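Subject: 1,4-dihydroxy-2-naphthoate octaprenyltransferase

B.,
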Amino acid sequence: MAIRPRTLPAAIGPLLVGNMLAIGLSQFSLLIAFTSMLCAILLQISVNLANDYFDFKNGIDTEDRIGPVRVTQSGLIAPRHVRNAMIGCLITALVVGSLLIVHGGWPIAILAAASILGALCYSGGPYPLASHGLGEIAAFVFFGLVAVVGSYYLQAGTTTITAWLLGSAIGFFNAAIMLVNNTRDISTDTKAGKNTLAVRIGESQAKVLYQSLVYLPFGIIIAGFLLGSLDGLPVLLAGVSLVIARNLSREFHNNSGEALNPILGQTAKLCMIFSILFSVGLFITLS
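Prediction pasted inline below.
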């Protein structure tokens, strides 16, 4: 419950795409692909545990919470145990990631340091990103650009416009996941003084923004195809998930509060389905 399994596709999807982009390269390494994905999952779990712990310590998670149960606030797990689990996951991620740093050099070392700092600063520290309307931007950067471009760089030793386009596309999906979470919590976050993006722009504008975030990825891959950066089959297969995006956009527009809980997990599934379909297209194209 504490690691929030429904959100883990946010870490798995971009790493899958980044590695699949490089699968046709002679230097492609399954070990590096597996290690990078494991490291991303550990970082996602660390973010979730940190959010659970720091939101309780900062008085944001209270008995008025309408989202899924948080183990610290509900008393299911003592705060120190959640904190220690967060630290343990971060240390494990660093140990696992040391192989990636040795393999990728100083650029990966910088990304690793930034990712660990981001995991801690999302909910904690003197300037929590989530409390200052920067949660969606952080999701876009770390679980979009950094994840896709970084995993491709680990395999190829360079980057391409294709990796940046796909990093942006998946980043928008992950920003949408964050937006659902924050829109659901507008009332309780406002009381707690947590100024998320949804609190700042209001629920009606958050609903408009969500539509943009789940539709933009499809515009990006179509533009990539028209510019000659993306092959047609992956774009066509990933485009099938537009049906899911359309349904989610409608559901998000018509619901509020606790009714948004299922849409959170479904948006994460949309990201994963998009990533899988695009990756299948890449594999078929390269075969």
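The mean pLDDT is 91.

T.
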